[in-house]
Amino acid sequence: MALTDKEIQSLKPKDKKYKVFDGDGLYLLIHPKGGKYWYMKYRIDGRPHEVSLGTYPAVSLKLARERREDVRHQLAKGLNPRLEKKAARETRGTLFSAIAEEWLLMMSAPTKVNGDPAVPRSVLDPATVKKHRWILDAYLNPVFGQQPMAQISAQQFLPVLKRIEEDGKSETAHRVRALASRIFCYAHSTGRAPQGDVTRSLRDALAPAVVVHHAAITDPEKVGELLLAIDGYTGQLETRCALRLAPLVILRPRELRFGEWSEINFEKAEWRIPAQRMKMDAPHIVPLSKQALVALYDLKKAASGGAKYLFPVLGSKEGVMSENTINLALRNLGYSGNVMTAHGFRSMASTLLNEQQQWHPDAIERQLAHAPRDKLRAAYNYAEHLAERRRMMQAWADYIDNLREAARARTLKQRKSEFPSSREERFVQAK
What we know:
CATH topology of the largest domain: hpI Integrase, Chain A
Largest sheet: 4 strands, antiparallel
Distance between the termini: 110 Å
Number of strands: 9
Number of helices: 17
């Protein structure tokens, strides 16, 4: 007798697993722990076989019956459904989309850092994983997702990259090729792409990407005007403090946004950022100037008890300020994206500190967390030039303070000339 959904839902587990048949070989196996599994019994050359069709309720009664019909069609063609299912599963494991997902999951899975289970970290940063997934969904999977890796050639790949390039997205084309290259290398190493990395030969088939640097203000007078504008920012306190801190700590925007209170040492006047939060995978020390400490004290006073992050999302203990918050604040202050960006504070400091010729170039580079080419040296020398960097960061904070005050004085002078306050000044201006 055929089953109904109501009957299936009423089936209870027993001490031993048991079967309930629907008809034409389809049955439901109920396990003692409550699981319900669909199977289809059939015979080939008089010998009994069976194939699993999924788990209830993920596979409904209607879908199970549809799969039963698929099995019967395969039998009519002289095929063994169980072997066909196995072959299909193995084929899926060789498809571009499946291998790409496998690689991305591997690269984003938390692992122990130096064997320390208390410091789990993935190979790829979450933001990078998000970008890779976007590239896969937008450009690679729609074209190659259902193709076996072993059948994809460079000649198939090139038109895809050229179309992206012709759309004016040269840098994106290079990013797509670079991600595909990593996936092909992984597939080759696991025996599923015997042809190797087919994108390797395409490096010179694309026009070089034009590197667009982050917009930054580096003219001292205009820097002073920017800092004066920041003083007048009337938005959220957290955003205002982030704007004040950005030129004082010269961190990358992400390193600033994800700052944790546990990293700040007010007594030693330093901010120690662990390697897993740094782009160059090396711990980093930021000597804190008096001005930076004041900004942090203001932020600390406003922080809710037990807050983890310096810049949390309002109403959340885990999330942090959006990557666009500082840029949007700059836009509200009148600075467009081609004039100044959140990342531009680093270029501002780098340019002006080097122009001063008072500091060792290596000290400036180290403070910007630009790792040396020798990664081993970078790991062991994160405190390099620290004494000079302490002096430099305080001198830098004093210098930009002076730029701000000079801008303030210029503004007051201009206002005074435009709107004279005394009778004598008005008389002189009228003459």
